[in-house]
Design a protein that fits this description.
By secondary structure, the chain is of the alpha/beta class. Helices cover 24% and strands 32% of the residues. Strand 14 and strand 15 form a beta hairpin. The protein is elongated and about 65 Å long.
């Protein structure tokens, strides 16, 4: 079984790699300190991935965010120092076990047995890189459609599609809270779900209606209707504190319906 390790702690990655090396049926094909690097591996590697050892708390976005971006994810073993997400974890069919750090050999082997049993019992293929033999699926709607379009010009689009693992996902524009640039990817945060897409902030800015969205920082575009409060040079949207550059603050203030 081909495995990858995704954990921002170097020591944890090295310990897991040592345990994997002692099992002749397992092969480490990559270890990564963040989800972005792991996504690039899944999208570009010629080798399939059968098992992911995944941390929950990582910079920028969580292990759960990472799982939601993968179509037909392989078996996943969560490896974390936080015991509080066990209930949420097993809402995902792909998660076969939940290990709390520090992990000993016996606990590791128990998780691996579960992953091997899952692989043996299913005929579903392991996750394959984008652009290989996986056929494109029919467009699927994003889960968040609760926001009703109001006060939008008639010629303004109400949705756009993003390509994730050769699957076209429809996103309701008004459901978008924040878009953040992350290297070669953008992180789209909606009311219900997050999406990581290989694109640029400039490209998505061209798709978003200007009366709703504003680039407030070189790495952030926000939905101005979703602002909860503004303090100094930042805005609160949902649970995210978004920085506002000095150059963009005047335009933001113009958008607000101030008393």
């Amino acid at each position: 079984m081909n495995c990858i390790i995704v954990d921002d702690e170097t020591l944890s990655r090295n310990i897991l790699e040592g345990m994997i090396a002692r099992d002749p049926e397992l092969t480490v094909t990559g270890q990564y300190s963040n989800a972005m690097q792991a996504m690039k591996h899944l999208n570009t590697s010629e080798e399939s991935t059968d098992l992911i050892f995944l941390d929950i708390h990582m910079p920028d976005f969580t292990g759960f965010d990472f799982i939601q971006t993968i179509k037909n994810p392989p078996a996943i073993v969560l490896v974390t120092s936080d015991k509080n997400f066990a209930t949420e974890a097993f809402e995902y069919d792909c998660i076969v076990d939940y290990m709390v750090k520090p992990v000993n050999e016996e606990r590791f082997q128990r998780a691996v047995r579960k992953a091997k049993a899952l692989k043996a019992s299913t005929a579903a293929p392991a996750v394959t890189p984008v652009g290989t033999t996986t056929p494109a699926a029919e467009p699927a709607a994003a889960t968040s459609t609760s926001t009703t379009a109001t006060n939008i010009p008639a010629d303004t689009p109400t949705e756009f599609y993003v390509n994730i693992d050769r699957r076209l996902i429809k996103i309701d524009i008004q459901s978008v809270n924040v878009v953040e640039a992350k290297g070669d990817y953008i992180h789209i945060k909606t009311e219900a779900k997050n999406y990581i897409v290989h694109s640029t902030l400039k490209k998505i800015e061209e798709k978003l209606p200007q009366h709703l969205f504003l680039k407030v920082h070189r790495t952030y575009i926000i939905n101005t209707k979703k602002i909860i409060d503004i303090e100094d040079n930042s805005v609160l949207i949902g649970k995210d504190v978004i920085p506002v550059s000095r150059a963009n603050r005047p335009e933001l203030m113009k958008r607000l319906n101030m008393l």
